[in-house]
Amino acid sequence: MGLSDIKKLRGLTSLGINDCKKALSESKGDFDKALKILKSKGAQMLEKKGSRATGQGVIDSYVHFGGNLAALVEVNCETDFVARTDLFKKFVKDMAMQVAAANPEHIAKEDIPEDVLKDVKNKDEYIKQYCLLEQAFIKNSKLLVGDYLRDTVSQTGENIVIKRFVRFSLGEADEG
Q: Which domains does the chain have, with CATH numbers?
């Protein structure tokens, strides 16, 4: 259990030094197991904080070079203090870019109407393609957007909710 492993875990998870030390100790020095332990801790933290009210936040946009594609995203958190942090603002900007690039239709799989899913042959593929939290993150394909959200929650210590989004593409017809 070296200092370099602790620093590396801290860099990957943004959790405290003591948490990283404890995870390495629990995993008997196995870095990959320690990382899994810390990711699990982040998921538990998100679950615990999930019921807390999110009355603050930021609305941000992304307009693609050339102006033919854009997205607006609203992401909420618990306090205006977190809403003003660079970490939170970066997360919101990344979500706007994700929406523009990956064209999700739903935030979470629970948001998909039953009548939409009943006509889908491969439900898992549909969920991965059209649910924002289940998509591969465009800046790191090894990370799901939901994992990025959990990481951000663990770094800020607050509940964070992607509230809504809209995507515009020049020349696309309205569906409604």
A: 3-49 (1.10.8.10), 56-169 (3.30.479.20)
